[in-house]
Write a structure and sequence with these properties.
Number of domains: 1
Helix content: 10-25%
Strand content: 25-35%
Order of helices and strands: EEEEHEE
Oligomer: single chain
Radius of gyration: 13 Å
Structural class: alpha+beta
Length: 107
């Protein structure tokens, strides 16, 4: 089974073909969250059934929601005008508090 990631367009240089730099399993959602070097996060859900890419969701984890959150944290942390040409490169990701909090390193 192939599951293709989708470009989350967090910056002009975004690409779903960038290397993975972090992976975390969410027992609560039966899903895996992948961090990609381009600053996007990707969710593959329903691992106990038929796994699928979760781009948007009304509730719970979604690739679009987590990627937008990561980009907003990057923009606020920089505290200056950042154009969409600037990529918030992620170097690693992990979770704490039994998976309820994600932490990532970006530059």
């Amino acid at each position: 089974m192939d599951i293709r990631l989708q470009n989350q367009r967090t910056s002009r240089n975004s690409s779903e073909l960038q290397p993975c730099c972090g992976i975390e399993y969410s027992n609560e959602n039966d899903s895996v969250i992948l961090a990609i070097v381009d600053g996007s996060l990707h969710v593959v859900g329903d691992l106990g059934g038929v796994p699928k890419y979760v781009n948007s969701a009304e509730s719970g984890l979604s690739s679009h929601g987590l990627s937008a959150l990561a980009r907003n944290v990057f923009l606020k942390n920089e505290g200056r005008g950042i154009t969409d040409a600037v990529t918030g490169k992620v170097s690693g990701m992990t979770s704490i508090c039994n998976g309820s909090i994600l932490l990532w390193i970006f530059e």
